[in-house]
Every structure is written in C-alpha cells, then in structure tokens.
C-alpha cells in the first residue's frame, strides 16, 4: 500500500478516535441529519480547505468546491454543464436554509493564473477547464482594461478579487436566493485568503474593496 494512502488511513483513525469514541459524541447528533448555518463556496486547491482554515467541526459548514471558486449565473433549462454548482447551491439555500453564504477565494490561484495566461489558440487549455473559466472572463477583461501595464502578481490578485465579486453577484441571479437576501434571511460574503501572509480579507460593498477581517 502506498505511503500516501497509509497516511490517509492513519488520519481516518485519528478522526474516528476523536469523533466516535464514547457515547453522546458529535456524530451521535449528526447521524440524524445536518443543519449547517453557513455555505462556503471555495476553490478545489489543496492548500485552502475551508474546514481547516476556519477551524470547523463536522456539520458546521456546507461546502461547494470547484476550480477558482466560481459560481455560474442562474441558467435553468440550459444544456450547459454548469449545473453541479447550481444544484448544490439550491440544496443549501432551499432545503438546508443556510443563513450565510461565503465565497472564499485565495491568492496564487491556479485557475485564475490559467485564465490570465490562456490564448484563443491554446491547445493545452484542457477539455473542460477552458469552458469553466469562461465564467470568470468578465473579471479578466476588467483587469486587462484597468491594469494593462501592471506586473503579473498584481494583475493576478486583481483578477482573483474581481472574480470573487463576480461570483457573489452571480448568486443574486438565482431568484429563490435573491428573495431570501431581500427578506433578510440570508447574508452574502466574499472573503479572500492571502496564502503568503495568512491574512483573511472581506469585501466591503460600500468602498468596493477588500479589507482585513
């Protein structure tokens, strides 16, 4: 057995010891159902597991993860392949009745790096990745328009932040989600985690900028 798999199984052993030992443990409650108050939409990047970053126990957060933490706009009946995120979003909002949605992005995002670096003739764009990254194309266009002479790192962070705001705005295209926001039953957040410094930023709607949380 590969050592990496052994490590995972040892980790499961620790998890089981922590949560399934004795009586009245956490999973004694969770086996009857989940009731998270928060939905986190995060990147698939292995460095930014939201449960670890936010020190959560099982059952605390409902999580959707994908490349570059993107959210498609509401597109019912479409032949698009984007409905996996929409289905999970619908379940969290309409069935679980979460009270907060956090779109969690991060620095040094490989998806945004690919978005900024791709060309129309790029043969290495991937069979599915390029189509998925089309969702963030407005963010890339804004960066190209507003920061044409900036260095790569500045442009990438600007695009990461812009795509976060775009995804948060796409959430409001879902009518059943927007209705809950307007009724004060649901609150939206856009957070940005900087890997190099370990600082978490939140988007301030009034200043239209990210500030330290």
Number of helices: 9
Total of domains? 2
Span of the ends, CA to CA: 43 Å
Radius of gyration (CA) equals 19 Å
What is the average per-residue confidence, as pLDDT, rounded to a whole number? Answer: 92
Helix content: 40-55%
**Approximate shape:** globular
Helix/strand order? HHEHEHEHHHHHEEE
Low-pLDDT residue intervals, each spanning 5 or more residues = none
Q: Oligomeric status of the shown chains?
A: single chain
CATH superfamily of the largest domain: Carbonic anhydrase
Q: Outline the biggest β-sheet.
A: 6 strands, mixed
Gross CATH architecture of the largest domain:
3-Layer(aba) Sandwich
CATH topology of the largest domain: Beta-carbonic Anhydrase, Chain A
Give the amount of beta strand, in percent. Answer: 15-25%
- Please give the order of strands in the largest beta sheet: 2-1-3-4-5-6
Structural class: alpha/beta
The count of β-strands is 6
What's the CATH C level of the largest domain? Alpha Beta
Explain what this protein looks like in three dimensions.
The chain has helices at 3-19, 26-30, 50-53, 83-95, 110-117, 129-133, 137-146, 152-171, 175-182, and strands at residues 38-43, 61-66, 100-106, 187-194, 199-204, 209-212. The chain has 213 residues and is of the alpha/beta class. It has two domains: 1-33, no CATH class; 34-212, Carbonic anhydrase (Beta-carbonic Anhydrase, Chain A), CATH 3.40.1050. A six-stranded mixed sheet has the order 2-1-3-4-5-6, with helices on one face. Strand 4 and strand 5 form a beta hairpin. The longest helix is centred in the C-terminal third of the chain and has 20 residues, at 152-171. The radius of gyration is 19 Å and the shape is globular.
